[in-house]
Prior knowledge:
Chain A: This is Fumarate reductase. Helices cover 22% and strands 25% of the residues of chain A. Chain A is an alpha+beta fold. The two termini of chain A are 47 Å apart. By secondary structure, chain B is of the alpha+beta class. Chain B is 48% helix and 11% strand. Chain B contains 16 helices and five strands. Chain B has helices at 2-17, 115-126, 137-142, 172-183, 186-197, 200-208, 212-225, 230-242, 247-254, 259-272, 275-287, 294-301, 310-322, 328-334, 342-353, 359-371, and strands at 31-39, 48-56, 62-70, 83-89, 94-99. A five-stranded antiparallel sheet of chain B has the order 1-2-3-4-5, with helices on one face. In chain B, helix 10 packs antiparallel against helix 11. At the A-B interface, strand 19 of A face helix 11 and helix 15 of B.
Amino acid sequence: xxxxxxxxxxxxxxxxxxxxxxxxxxxxxxxxxxxxxxxxxxxxxxxxxxxxxxxxxxxxxxxxxxxxxxxxxxxxxxxxxxxxxxxxxxxxxxxxxxxxxxxxxxxxxxxxxxxxxxxxxxxxxxxxxxxxxxxxxxxxxxxxxxxxxxxxxxxxxxxxxxxxxxxxxxxxxxxxxxxxxxxxxxxxxxxxxxxxxxxxxxxxxxxxxxxxxxxxxxxxxxxxxxxxxxxxxxxxxxxxxxxxxxxxxxxxxxxxxxxxxxxxxxxxxxxxxxxxxxxxxxxxxxxxxxxxxxxxxxxxxxxxxxxxxxxxxxxxxxxxxxxxxxxxxxxxxxxxxxxxxxxxxxxxxxxxxxxxxxxxxxxxxxxxxxxxxxxxxxxxxxxxxxxxxxxxxxxxxxxxxxxxxxxxxxxxxxxxxxxxxxxxxxxxxxxxxxxxxxxxxxxxxxxxxxxxxxxxxxxxxxxxxxxxxxxxxxxxxxxxxxxxxxxxxxxxxxxxxxxxxxxxxxxxxxxxxxxxxxxxxxxxxxxxxxxxxxxxxxxxxxxxxxxxxxxxxxxxxxxxxxxxxxxxxxxxxxxxxxxxxxxxxxxxxxxxxxxxxxxxxxxxxxxxxxxxxxxxxxxxxxxxxxxxxxxxxxxxxxxx
Amino acid sequence: xxxxxxxxxxxxxxxxxxxxxxxxxxxxxxxxxxxxxxxxxxxxxxxxxxxxxxxxxxxxxxxxxxxxxxxxxxxxxxxxxxxxxxxxxxxxxxxxxxxxxxxxxxxxxxxxxxxxxxxxxxxxxxxxxxxxxxxxxxxxxxxxxxxxxxxxxxxxxxxxxxxxxxxxxxxxxxxxxxxxxxxxxxxxxxxxxxxxxxxxxxxxxxxxxxxxxxxxxxxxxxxxxxxxxxxxxxxxxxxxxxxxxxxxxxxxxxxxxxxxxxxxxxxxxxxxxxxxxxxxxxxxxxxxxxxxxxxxxxxxxxxxxxxxxxxxxxxxxxxxxxxxxxxxxxxxxxxxxxxxxxxxxxxxxxxxxxxxxxxxxxxxxxxxxxxxxxxx
Lengths: 640, 376
């Protein structure tokens, strides 16, 4: 709808356009729509006034990010940090999407490549580390607050919770505004922005903008996909409802509620196992071969019934004596969705791009979760395995920027499960940490759009190097693409040396590769602590920032898990390898002067900013890690 | 001198140990010393008390260790548990396993081990970086062979993807159980037992042994026994002169030596060592709270112009500054560095800039200052 038309048509048009469902949530009917309320009869006893104040605020930002899951948070934070005034619009009361306390999916990423993780870095790494400091108890509700803190502390970022972007206001092929209904305040916000990023999963804003999208499974021939069905169909992977149980230390009875759907496990595929059932069963899932969004409430009710049916089977079938003392401790009411709309960009990522490790010149993210395609129908198709796990990756695959902006809506980008890819590609890239990398990429790209006054497609065509360099400076990793930022003064140092070395080489710190990968060592590791590195310039430089990338053991997962797993592959605390205490010094007129120190570092990317000074040398003194006897670094950068 | 010492040590080794360090002898000549220790096995919820037998030769030297364990940890009581004896070297390296006569190991569903399976199990146990290091026992219980198993993203991935080369198909639980017995914290317990049992004479041999693990055991024992006689100190010094990778560990021991001994060794390492030994000596002196005489560092500075890198020059000047040495001889040694490559020259300039210089030296640094004003 054109913006002008919207205002002309007023309430009726808005009702027709889909605001109504939000109103229904407060048990109202269409006559109760109150965001535009000339007939409102409110008499305020306190002030003696009548009538409703304006509840149609108009706000303007550089960038509007819709959806507060991992992708949306990373997009919004990247945008804000890089200089765009940004708003993050989330339709739930908490952040985190599928990883929030409302759903409680593990925030997985490249968890296991040949027995080791290849963890995502950048903003998602910072979030997961923040959680390890702030949430030692590994509580999902506390994780909501960790994310809240992570977002609201950003000075250039506003957060709107309980707010859903329901309608795009268009001008040609450009989104001018997003109409956003805030359920808790009965306000209809008009959010104006230059760039819109839809990370909402279902992508309602993008759909109402007229962005091209598809649902269902591509046929084999369209993209020459091995694992696609012979013919295209409408099947989408389902949503799952999770639960967790608690050992009460004594036998606990269980009787199913009225809506439970009897479950017997008869005829079930053997891969429908009950391992880890105490923390939920992921194959309690219902999909759709039609309009999965429209079916969501029906399916939610079904899922609640299936969940209790399966739990009844566990508790009362006699097959699970280990469940005798268990009782349900938490039961989800909001299913975690895997698939619905996939918007079409300038490139559609497909199976072979992943399995054949296609190199993209516009690569901005990577993935490595298996091709984990769930069966059509989920628990309603029980003889099938719950997932086919078609393919396990032995190295990470690349994801291109051209799949993250709309083919036909000029200022629209997306990140998460709704990006431009096939159903089979989605079966891997839907994993949250992969989505988070996409989010950081589009958030960063949005700021380039604003700074350069260009649209996302032009970023792909003319500014992709700038985008990649900024992402890598901000600790994202791009496979097979070393950083080579010409503004980085560390690369121009006359000499770089370290106090001691136990492995790697100090010159690796300026080779542009911020992790050990593909059998190549890109680190320097001290021999004991304290340790220091020093850079010398023959000609003095003007310096205002020093940036380090320290080791956080990317081969070990750090996301919060319900089972608090703690071994070589999964850690449940702050990585012991991470640099904790350090100080920075610069030589100015022949004397070493302290620039700053950090006592309790909490991030992999360590940045010290200061007023620009002229220096001939810099040294970083490292005193302690969180437990490792040596400190390992991957990168040092210096900027004017 | 160093070579002579080594030759003597190696002759001594064969005399004292009778070649028994690595070869087995008639068991009747050996003494078995039991050690009651607590071991944490990842398959057990709590640490387990075990008896580790230290096998000593007639000279009281620990030559081997053995321990009896069960082949599997099995909560459901449905597995066949076979006693297995594991053997380690005196450095804690797994060597072999033995079964009781006519005992056989079993696979999943009562299949018996084949001959090749026994050989493969031994190879698995010898791999201290086996994939079993990272596997949960819960995964093994439910995955009896080399299945590829994965859970969905929604509850968190656990992949048990063992290559056939890494396990005995159908006997993953046995492999897992024995691997952790063979390669778990028993290894450090064995090293500790050896460091306590060996004589001082044997420690001398350990220091020079080509297997670095012996060096580590010796250093631990030297510190525990507070041994700083010249014979030990020189041996450690000679070892770290030849092996840069051991510098850090060597200095950890040397820094606890009497001050006179420590300073002598630091000087030897500075003058005779290569770049890393020189840097280690300077770094050690920088870090220890030891007063150093002016003459001591004047001697070091005499060779400053022969130091090969900026890093060495800068470290020595840092050291002189840190120890607050005020010496005309030092200044005289440093002044020629103003003619060196620029980074070294600039470092020397800023050092001299803070010193009390004679008129000719003042003239030289003023000229340097004028020439390189924009680059200082």
